[in-house]
Design brief:
heterodimer; A: 107 residues; mainly beta; 4-stranded antiparallel β-sheet; 10 strands; 48% strand; B: 122 residues; 7-stranded mixed β-sheet
């Protein structure tokens, strides 16, 4: 199985901040990496697919980059509605695996 | 707009079989462009992929659960289902159904149900 490790596990930031979350895979997987946002009591929402493609309807302040084993999710200017937990997920091979999550909290 | 909705018992006895159904609207489980998936999340924890099914009935399961999981599809009802046998308290989780794209540019879980909490307890 491909292990996905996110850092940090939690992060405190303020509205307007630029935030970067990192995801590292245990083996190279090209650009087969997706990012999701999950708010309490809700299902995850797809933000970024194929490492850098923005899902339809997702604000452009979200961006993704990386390939191989190292990937990043960047939020250029945090908005109040962005405080949530973020997960990466690999689609390179089954079993599809997720990172442990990064909880983004208000400072 | 594609919508998925999970249904099934919220309480299951230990050693019994958990059974859930996902009803799809605004799209078809017969589409060759998607796999139909189950994912779970124990309370306060991360996400675990359980498996998925193609409209043909072809399945792919997480090896960690494979011996206990069966996913099936009913194209006439536009539904797919999950059965997880011999459950224990460790199977207590929110269970989500989700759609997963099959083409290179869409290999992601793009639509999700709202999730249903299943508690394993006597």
């Amino acid at each position: 199985d491909i292990q996905m490790t996110q850092s940090p596990s939690s992060l405190s930031a303020s509205v307007g901040d630029r935030v970067t979350i990192t995801c590292r895979a245990s083996q190279s997987m090209s650009s087969y990496l997706n990012w999701y946002q999950q708010k309490p009591g809700k299902a995850p929402k797809l933000l970024i697919y194929a490492a850098s493609s923005l899902q339809s309807g997702v604000p452009s302040r979200f961006s993704g980059s990386g390939s191989g084993t190292d990937f990043t999710l960047t939020i250029s200017s945090l908005q109040p509605e962005d405080f949530a937990t973020y997960y990466c997920q690999q689609s390179f091979s089954t079993p599809h695996t997720f990172g442990q999550g990064t909880k983004l909290e208000i400072k | 707009q594609v919508q998925l909705q999970e249904s099934g018992p919220g309480l299951v006895q230990p050693s019994e079989t958990l059974s859930l159904t996902c009803t799809v609207s605004g799209g078809s489980v017969s589409s060759g462009s998607y796999y139909w998936s189950w994912i779970r999340q124990p309370p306060g924890k991360g996400l675990e992929w359980i498996g998925y099914i193609y409209h043909s009935g072809s399945t792919n399961y997480n090896p960690s659960l494979k011996s206990r999981v069966t996913i099936s599809v009913d194209t006439s009802k536009n539904q797919f289902s999950l059965k997880l046998s011999s459950v224990t308290a460790a199977d207590t989780a929110v269970y989500y159904c989700a759609r997963y794209g099959t083409s290179r540019g869409s290999l992601a879980f793009d639509y999700w149900g709202q999730g249903t909490l299943v508690t394993v307890s006597s």
